[in-house]
Amino acid sequence: xxxxxxxxxxxxxxxxxxxxxxxxxxxxxxxxxxxxxxxxxxxxxxxxxxxxxxxxxxxxxxxxxxxxxxxxxxxxxxxxxxxxxxxxxxxxxxxxxxxxxxxxxxxxxxxxxxxxxxxxxxxxxxxxxxxxxxxxxxxxxxxxxxxxxxxxxxxxxxxxxxxxxxxxxxxxxxxxxxxxxxxxxxxxxxxxxxxxxxxxxxxxxxxxx
Length: 209
Ligand SMILES: [Mg+2]
Hints:
Layout: E1 7-10, H1 19-31, H2 45-48, H3 53-63, H4 66-70, H5 78-87, E2 91-96, H6 103-112, E3 119-124, E4 139-140, H7 141-145, E5 151-154, H8 157-166, E6 171-174, H9 187-190, E7 193-196, H10 199-205
Parallel strand pairs: 1-2, 1-5, 2-3, 3-4, 5-6, 6-7
């Protein structure tokens, strides 16, 4: 058996964790703004939350505090799905777009929720690494291009398109308002992107990826 084909790529925010819900609470608490979930149609929080550049910086500082990360809720159905795949011999690789300085808090959260995984990587998915300092090790999308997966689970439409088109991997796209614009999915990626409304649909669609 080709072990590289038993690797499953899993994103964390808004795939395993209810990150946007926590961010919405922080937005209300610190900026006195409320943006309903259904109105978050842009992955770019500055636009979806209507924040100025310096507000975004302050907001992200608050959002990346260890306590803020540790208090994000687990998405229902995520752990049993990963446990099932692990038992069946799949390797769970977590690839997050969070900045690498959140590693300790991220690992604590994964432990707290007993999320099975063989690896956690920080990936500059959105071209933000320039803000992360130079002494940290992160992958970029070119590094990810060298990897092989039998399935990816993502919520970023841009990253899903990259994975489907460049790695030719099937992508379970967790449905959210910010990834619903079909015009942003090019034809060459379309047939590999499967929209799933939650983990029960992911497992039903990919019982044996
Ligand atoms: Mg995400």
